[in-house]
Amino acid sequence: QMDELTELRELKQPLEYTSCGSVFKRPVGHFTGKLIQDAGLQGLKWGGAQISEKHAGFIVNIDHATATDYVELIAHIQEVIKEKFDVELQT
């Protein structure tokens, strides 16, 4: 069973990059990754950070991302999701 869980994790999570993990809390009644996908943000790059193409709930370091890259990308995601869906994403 552990092997199955590990395999499932490898399929669904962007383990090939370093990341800050799953960044946002799940808003009531929504899935964060789905909101980000539906907003057209999946794959968006900001400096060296990128919204994972494998799982939109993760922000990955693709090219020496700085803390500022992460903070600005997180703020941008929150702003877009609030504008498009009136949902506040919390970290």
How does this model look, in words?
With 91 residues, this protein is an alpha+beta fold. The protein has a single domain (2-85), classed as Alpha-Beta Complex (Uridine Diphospho-n-acetylenolpyruvylglucosamine Reductase, domain 1), CATH 3.90.78.10. 41% of the residues lie in helices and 15% in strands. The protein is built from three helices and four strands. The chain has helices at residues 2-12, 32-38, 67-85; strands spanning 18-22, 45-46, 49-51, 58-61. It has a four-stranded antiparallel beta sheet with strand order 1-4-3-2. The longest helix has 19 residues, at 67-85. It is globular and about 40 Å long. The model has no long low-confidence stretch (mean pLDDT 88).
List the topology elements.
Blueprint: H1 2-12, E1 18-22, H2 32-38, E2 45-46, E3 49-51, E4 58-61, H3 67-85
Antiparallel strand pairs: 1-4, 2-3, 3-4
